[in-house]
Write a structure and sequence with these properties.
The structure holds 2 protein chains of 2 kinds. In chain A, the strands form 3 sheets. In chain A, strands 2, 5, 6, 10, 11 and 12 form a 6-stranded mixed beta sheet that branches. Chain A has a 4-stranded antiparallel beta sheet with strand order 3-9-8-7, with no helix packed on it. A two-stranded antiparallel sheet of chain A has the order 1-4. By secondary structure, chain A is an all-beta fold. Chain A has no helices and 12 strands. Chain A is globular. Chain B is mainly beta. In chain B, 0% of the residues lie in helices and 61% in strands. Chain B has strands at residues 3-7, 10-13, 19-26, 32-38, 44-52, 55-58, 65-70, 73-78, 87-95, 98-101, 105-109. Chain B is globular and about 40 Å long. The termini of chain B are far apart. Classes of the chains: A mainly beta, B mainly beta. The interface between A and B is medium-sized, with 22 and 22 residues.
């Protein structure tokens, strides 16, 4: 079945460092790919998405490119801030039906001043 | 714009007691609705989804049930809570293939 694998955390960085959180997937066909962010004690917020190969999703300085050839959707940010500290979830879904989301286990990011 | 509400925000219940968590969506009609559970330090597990009033599908066998009495209302219930039901429960709705999540309910079963 479909699955999503994320790099294990926690990831600890200093402010203004470069961030990469790896995400790879296994799926039939051409799923849509998502990154969600969860701040402490809150629900999930959609961070960015990509719906087809080579699409680049971007939001709030974060970027991720849908790579069909490597089945990857790595999250990057050039300069992280303390306020980016959160748990990041990679997910996929197929169009049609009920759009079931398959989530990775999540990666905790801690940014220190 | 669309808004999703969940209540209560936190809940502490004894083992064996009943449960009712409510989720309502504003600003949209006939949404797909979902209940997820997030155990401590883990990812999200889809529990139930609904494509319309009275239509409920379960993803995993468990101690919980769901109902959709109105178009924009989704309820998660249990007759007798177990310790393993503790977790963070998230309701979500979807439009054009994208899911949006509510603020969640943190349930602790003692």
């Amino acid at each position: 079945g479909d699955s999503v694998t994320q790099m294990e955390g926690p990831v600890t960085l200093s402010e203004e460092a470069f961030l990469t959180i790896n995400c790879t997937y296994t799926a039939t066909g051409y799923p849509s790919l998502f990154w969600y962010v969860q701040y402490p004690g809150e629900g999930l917020q959609l961070l960015l998405k990509a719906t087809k190969a080579d699409d680049k999703g971007s939001n709030k300085g974060f970027e991720a490119t849908y790579r069909k050839e490597t089945t990857s959707f790595h999250l990057e940010k050039g300069s992280v801030q303390v306020s980016d500290s959160a748990v990041y979830f990679c997910a996929l879904s197929h169009s049609g039906g009920y759009n079931k989301l398959i989530f990775g286990a999540g990666t905790r990011l801690a940014v220190h001043p | 714009s669309q808004t999703i509400h969940q209540w209560p925000a936190t809940l502490v219940q004894p083992v064996g007691s009943p449960l009712s968590l409510e989720c309502t969506v504003e600003g949209t009609s006939n949404p797909n609705l979902y209940w997820y559970r997030q155990a401590a330090g883990r990812g999200l597990q889809l529990l139930f989804y609904s494509v319309g009033i009275g239509q409920i599908s379960s993803e995993v066998p468990q101690n919980l049930s769901a109902s959709r009495p109105q178009d924009r209302q989704f309820i998660l219930s249990s007759k007798k809570l177990l310790l393993s039901d503790s977790g963070f429960y998230l309701c979500a709705w979807s439009v054009r293939g994208v899911q949006f999540f509510g603020p969640g309910t943190r349930l602790t079963v003692l």
